[in-house]
Amino acid sequence: MKTIKPITIVLLSSLMSLTTFQTLASETLDSHEHGSASLDIAIDDNVIAIRFESPAANIVGFEYAPNDEEQRSLITDAKSKLSSFDTAFKLRGKPECKVLRSFSNWVSDHDEHSDHDEHKDETLKAEHAEFLAEFDLQCEQADRLTAIDVQLMSLFPAINKVDVQVIDSLGQTKQTLTIDNSIIKLNNE
To answer: Is 94 helix (H, G, I), strand (E, B) or coil?
Structure first.
């Protein structure tokens, strides 16, 4: 079994620290941009870590606590799509990767409030919900990875753009994806 190298730990820590900072900043500002999402990717040797974050309105069309079974079903379906790496992403270059972990969740301001809160109506009006998805991959030939085709805008048409950050052994790159430009080109292409 392969061990994780120190550089992988540093890259992943940097990515998660940046993501934590972004999350805290968005919580402090209590806002997010509908139509936009973010995607952070860390690549080191044969390990790839991916984190996707989007306002819930982009994914299910609302960002308040679900009111009925239909809305709960939309959340469940979205979590299922977001948890499926092969549905959300296509790797180019035949890196022979295996998904070790996939996770998606609905995160809501309302989750932190009690149903008995006397300000419940105000809380629901101010509520912001997001979807998070995370993936950890182990690749046999990660050096063959030339690009990642991001399918998220096809799956969820309310996403107009995805701000991408990639951290790898060559440094950090940023890119903005749209429905017409959904491919992250990597340094080794």
So the answer is: coil
